[in-house]
Design a protein that fits this description.
This protein is mainly β. The chain has 2 domains: 40 residues, no CATH class; 133 residues, Sandwich (Jelly Rolls), CATH 2.60.120. The strands form 5 sheets. It has a 5-stranded mixed beta sheet, with no helix packed on it. It has a 5-stranded antiparallel beta sheet with strand order 9-6-18-12-15, with no helix packed on it. The two termini are 41 Å apart.
Length: 188
Amino acid sequence: MPVTLNASTSSGLIATSDTSGNIELQNNGTTRLTVNSSGVNFAAQPLIAGVAPPAFSANANTTQSISSGTFTKVVFGAERFDTNNNFASNTFTPTVAGYYQLNISVYYASNPSGQAILFLYKNGAAYTEIGRNVASGAGTLSGSVVAYANGSTDYFDVYFLSSGAGNTLSNSTDAFYVNFSGVLVRGA
């Protein structure tokens, strides 16, 4: 016989017969799992109760000139999506505390003297080196990191350092050359 099992905090375990042909497991009246002729279906759950996981993706929409020997903040002029409005002015400021996977990729059009370094900054200071290339010429640096954010004051930026004059970060008229994205992977 089809049945709904509900683990209620006020009444304990409640079993209710129905004619749906499903078996449902509930917690306080919210269906968490359904078993039917199609198989087992889990209800989509946020990582933190009541909060959808914040996620964003931004990319460059113009070519950016880089000064030699200077840490330069990378400009991401376009957003693909920003589910929680946490990305603005080239900075990701998560408002949900937790652990975020942050992904960064840049294409640089030239590197005359052979030193290009990509950094993730947290709260205005270098947090981790994402990539380094010591060969001259054009190239791509990319990587990912999982970083903790407190949900109130922590923020993240991307910086690029080139030891040679005349380097540029290029979008080459396509949105996939210079990117910054992230998603909450676990609550605090």
